[in-house]
């Protein structure tokens, strides 16, 4: 079985229209939760570049140090009252959980509480104060330009959500939503929204077609049309996001972008949850990822990216509630994919597809010296047969470091059966679904399998630093362009 690759892009902004990214939420309700260094090693191996934590766990933040991974930390709901009632408490929270970790840990956002209006309404009166106090502490530390402050909302605060043009936030929350949106506007932040078409579908009692919830193609006559705007909606996700945009416009806020902080589909459910299946979870997340990364935006804001965090990294067997609540993860606790995403043709984005056609290539933007060092390692200690790269052989042309490295990286990747970490090479390699073969130079296809490899030497890496950052390739000085590498045995929990 192929390995899951998550290649995550840049931050979203309604104003700058940068590319959207896909991130993941990291829940910890597992009976055998991997330790933070193992979690980060999985993130690194899968090239996950954006994560959201439900707290600001010190060990996790230390493990994320020096990885470049963009991190959203959270003020848990049980700390919200203290932060919202005291500027000093908020300042101490920022000092302990943010200032102590930056810049080594790339914290880019703080989520203050989670779905406060619907799950902790008694704390709603202090929500905006909490955001302002946290932001003031960031200003005092000169971090306000780097780190945005917001709070995730359940989409259930949107009433009369279809057609989207007539949607509005529950007016009973206007005393909170109006100053909140003005705060987001004034600080250049974004509205955090949790979007779960699964629940909308389940609660519709058959009104919402399953294909419409799963992003599956619909014939034009089956598309939902907003009679007021004549906009066509082909999926529930877009309709909910646009309903949030129209709800903000109802409060005269039109320039606050949206980031979806949670979305996904459960892969298993109880008997009364027949649509919580592996196939549906696969379809939803595969289509969601493709939709977000295509930067298509929504019908109301075409081309405006809607970055989204998938709920979630791991299946959480300790989550309360029905069976579906325990099965939203992309991976099990051992780092094995729960299912293989359908992403054929997505290029270097999430090249984990059921056709098993994945390849490991050199990054175009990588440092040529590091690419050369990794090439030397692959053709030396990595035991790749690089004879096809010799002059006169099929893969000699084009005679460039990147072209030769791509051949060697791919050969090593398949030699190691596409195990996690075998297409990394200190960040100069990445996975693609585009076949790099050319002329008579034929690359190995991804015919490996998804199995644990105990004690196998993976891609060259070094031990982490004291910060807890995961293993990575260590390049020493070299005088003959021959790589001096240290090879780490990856923990079986990460394979």
Give me some keywords for this one:
globular; Methane Monooxygenase Hydroxylase, Chain G, domain 1; 495 residues; nine-stranded parallel β-sheet; 2 domains; alpha/beta; TIM Barrel; two-stranded antiparallel ribbon; single chain; disordered N terminus
Brief sketch in words of this structure:
The protein is an alpha/beta fold and 495 residues long.
What does this structure look like?
The protein has 2 domains: 22-326, Glycosidases (TIM Barrel); 356-495, Methane Monooxygenase Hydroxylase, Chain G, domain 1. The protein has 13 helices and 15 strands. The protein has helices spanning 36-45, 58-63, 77-85, 87-99, 116-119, 127-140, 174-187, 197-203, 210-213, 236-250, 278-293, 368-379, 401-415, and strands at residues 22-26, 50-53, 70-75, 106-112, 148-150, 152-154, 158-159, 168-169, 191-194, 224-225, 232-233, 258-263, 308-310, 359-362, 429-432. The strands form 4 sheets. A 9-stranded parallel beta sheet has the order 5-4-3-2-1-13-12-9-6. Strands 7-8 form a two-stranded antiparallel sheet. The longest helix is centred in the middle third of the chain and has 16 residues, at 278-293. The two termini are 12 Å apart. Belongs to the glycosyl hydrolase 17 family. GO terms for molecular function: glucan endo-1,3-beta-D-glucosidase activity. Residues 1-17 form the signal peptide. The chain crosses the membrane at residues 473-494.
Largest sheet: 9 strands, parallel
Total separate domains: 2
CATH superfamily of the largest domain: Glycosidases
Low-confidence stretches: 1-17, 344-356, 446-495
CATH topology of the largest domain: TIM Barrel
Radius of gyration: 23 Å
Instruction: Sketch the topology as an H/E string, one letter per element.
Output: EHEHEHHEHHEEEEHEHHEEHEHEEHHE
User: What's the total helix number?
Assistant: 13
């Amino acid at each position: 079985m192929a390995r899951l690759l998550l290649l995550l892009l840049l931050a979203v902004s309604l104003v700058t229209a940068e590319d959207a990214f896909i991130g993941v939420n990291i829940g910890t309700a597992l009976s055998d939760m991997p330790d933070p260094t193992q979690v980060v090693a999985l993130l690194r191996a899968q090239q996950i570049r954006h994560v959201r934590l439900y707290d600001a766990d010190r060990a996790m933040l230390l493990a994320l140090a020096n990885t470049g991974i963009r991190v959203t930390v959270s003020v848990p709901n049980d700390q919200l009252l203290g932060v919202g009632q005291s500027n000093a408490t908020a300042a101490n929270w920022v000092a302990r959980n943010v200032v102590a970790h930056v810049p080594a840990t790339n914290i880019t956002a703080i989520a203050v509480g989670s779905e406060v209006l619907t799950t902790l309404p008694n704390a709603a009166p202090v929500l905006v104060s909490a955001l302002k106090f946290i932001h003031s502490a960031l200003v005092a530390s000169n971090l306000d330009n780097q780190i945005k402050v917001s709070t995730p909302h359940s989409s259930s605060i949107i009433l009369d959500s279809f057609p989207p043009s007539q949607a509005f936030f529950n007016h009973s929350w206007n005393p909170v939503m109006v100053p909140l949106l003005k705060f987001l506007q004034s600080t250049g932040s974004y509205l955090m929204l949790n979007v779960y078409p699964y629940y909308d579908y389940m609660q519709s009692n058959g009104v919402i077609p399953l294909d419409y919830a799963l992003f599956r193609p619909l014939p034009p006559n089956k598309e939902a049309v907003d009679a007021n705007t004549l906009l066509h909606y082909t999926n529930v996700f877009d309709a909910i996001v646009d309903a949030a945009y129209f709800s903000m416009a109802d409060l005269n806020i039109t320039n606050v972008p949206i980031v979806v902080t949670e979305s996904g589909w459960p892969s298993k459910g109880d008997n009364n949850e027949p649509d919580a299946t592996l196939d549906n979870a696969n379809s939803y997340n595969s289509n969601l990822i493709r939709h977000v990364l295509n930067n298509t935006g929504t019908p109301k804001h075409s081309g405006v990216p809607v970055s989204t965090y998938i709920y979630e990294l791991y299946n959480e067997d300790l989550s309360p509630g029905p069976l579906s609540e325990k099965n939203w993860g992309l991976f099990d606790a051992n780092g094995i994919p729960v299912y293989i995403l359908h992403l054929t043709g997505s290029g270097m984005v999430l090249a984990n597809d059921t056709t098993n056609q994945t390849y490991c290539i050199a990054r175009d933007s990588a440092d040529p010296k590091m690419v050369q060092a990794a090439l030397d390692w692959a053709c030396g200690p990595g035991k790749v047969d690089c004879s096809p790269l010799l002059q006169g052989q099929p893969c000699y042309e084009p005679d460039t470091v990147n072209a030769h490295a791509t051949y060697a990286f791919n050969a090593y990747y398949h030699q190691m059966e596409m195990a996690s970490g075998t297409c990394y090479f200190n960040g100069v390699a990445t996975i693609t679904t585009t076949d790099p073969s050319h002329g008579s130079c034929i690359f190995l296809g991804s015919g490996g399998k998804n199995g644990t490899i105990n004690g196998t030497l993976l891609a060259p890496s070094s031990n982490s630093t004291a910060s807890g950052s995961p293993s990575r390739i260590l390049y020493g000085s070299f005088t003959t362009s021959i790589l001096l590498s240290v090879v780490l045995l990856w923990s079986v929990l990460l394979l």
